[in-house]
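User: Could you check the structure of this?
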Amino acid sequence: MARILLSVMMSLVFCMPLFARSYTKYKDLDYVSPSARDYDKVRHKLDVYAPKEKIATGKVMVFMHGGSWDAGHKELYKFVGRAFAANGITTVIINYRLSPGTKYEGIAYDCARAVAWVKENIATYGGNPNEIYVAGHSAGGHLAALIISDPSYFDKVGITNPIKGCILNDPFGLNIYKYLEHGYDGDATFRVTFTNSPVVWKKASPLFLLQKNDIRYYILHGGKTYPAVFGDSEDFHSKNVELGNSSEIHTVGKKKHIGMVLLFFRKHNKEVKKVIAFIEK
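Assistant: Sure, the predicted structure tokens are below.
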């Protein structure tokens, strides 16, 4: 899954059309102090796409890339930053450490640290620190949902969860317990990230951790995506409804897994506009 995604994304990076310069990009900002014991000079970086003042809404979206937790890079997702910044959203694209260098907890901790950095610093780039939304595709969707659903991550970085809304684009792993318990060919790399322990799988599954909260959820999945993505997305939405959380879910035509993130390629795409409308409610 990750290898196919990366090859497609790389081809897009090199043929990407330029948007009108309605934003300024601030590249390779450290969200972990270089003096930290676990600092990684590549993975602990983020890029900020700050819309020009005349179109800026103050809303902030932090995007977490996919790649099966062991691949991916913020540079492959420039198009997300460009498309949303061109619509007035201050957009942050992050790197995080990858498996096997760290397990899923370390990856999620990095994502929480990136959000904490955004909370503290985004006003410098025209964003409102009280209007932070997180988004992610595939494994990135799992990470976005996990740091919301498990309070230990923001506890560890020493802040109250600042997230107002969560956009899950074809999220993979919302119920990683169910996926690994079933057993599929090729899931060995996931077991490196999530170990061989069913107890850990359940602890890593946002579906089991979800509680009543004030966060708004926007879930979209492809009509022809992986069955696990489709089923988990529906279950996650249903659990939100059961808890009384604000949640909406949308099936996008005949789109497959990779096609879903590519919906965020152009600023005028109707799915981008729907996400913008959700953020601006």
